[in-house]
Fold this sequence. Notes:
By secondary structure, the chain is α/β, with parallel strands linked by helices. 23% of the residues lie in helices and 19% in strands. It is built from 9 helices and 17 strands. It is elongated and about 70 Å long.
Amino acid sequence: MADVARFLSWRFGLFLHWGPCSVIGTELSWGRDNQHQPERLNQSPRDRGSTPRVRVPAALYDTLYKHFNPIYFDADRWVRTAKAAGMKYLVFTSKHHDGFCNFDTETTDYKITSAESPFGRDIVKELADACHRHDFGLGFYYSQPDWRHPDYGTANHARYVEYFHKHVEEICTKYGKIDIFFFDGLFDESKTRVSKTPPIYGRKDGADWWDSERLIARMRQWQPDMVINDRAGVAGDYETPEQRVGAYQPDKPWESNITLTKRWSYGFDEQTKSAEECIRMLLNTVTGGGNLLLNVGPDPLGLFPPASVQVLEAMGRFLAAYGESIYDTRGGPYPSWTWGGSTHRGNVVYVHVQHWPLIEDRLRLPISAGTTLLSAELLTGGTVDASVKDGLIHLVVPTDQLHPIDTIVKLTFDKPLVFEG
């Protein structure tokens, strides 16, 4: 049975979009000009402000793998960097919409182990082995759409479906234990792209297009503990809001996948989010009940961009100090609000205050009937005055002891808080 509880306990993971496109710094797949890609450069309102997508002729894009030679790629170093950032798992792009396989498949020569590939090593295998060595969560992204395959979206689409099912079988059976599988189908029932996160991800009509039910049943046999996302036309084990923090849903498994820069893959001149922005993004995610999958695009040599590494290191320092309030917790019981939110583990509640209330300089929180507050501690250093009056907990922290990002108050009760409704 899919181990959703373990997946949610990890809270923070690394998304990796990487492939031959990094040689010229164009966006993965979306930089390939082809008839399957209806999106145009006049971007939708939600895309404005992101990196413009430059079109590369398909005939040129499809030869980039012959020049892709990431000589400094070191799977162990990638995993060590992720662990130092406080991450607990990674998800790597085994195949994106461009059809290039970052693993050794029997189905095509358009792959990293092709005779025409100067690198010639199975990246998926090396990452899987490194994750297993470091006891690190392992996940793989796989795109059902394949804009290069001649049968995809044609009268011979059923033949393409068998091709992609074979890929999934290879990934699930050749690389040891896998914890996460991230599908990425991008079509509605008319088979046209409608948005970055279209409704088809959770609707039954997409299952026929991908023969999803048969495939996922087999995946459950190959990898019984593996969690599978919601982007194959059937309801998955967890939801995947993209490029945004999900809504407060502490009782429903979800994971926000968000880029560290303004794009998914490597670019030569990218704007990187600040460490503070990323820490707040993580806090807003976990207090809402979700995981954060933060994306990095490695460069063509196999290295993480220095600006990305700096942000990851800062997040690692934050989590090394305050990780007990993040890992193995669930969102709530206090809903996310203008001041911040909360996480909990059993009868312990961590109140994450990003913006301390200005009115009377105190935070008021309800306490459930029949529950006793045993202690209050300021995890971020200093003292907190806690009192209970008229069914409310009153928390007061001196202004000079407020943390610049997240003032964390640890509340211990005699039993878990339970609120009606």
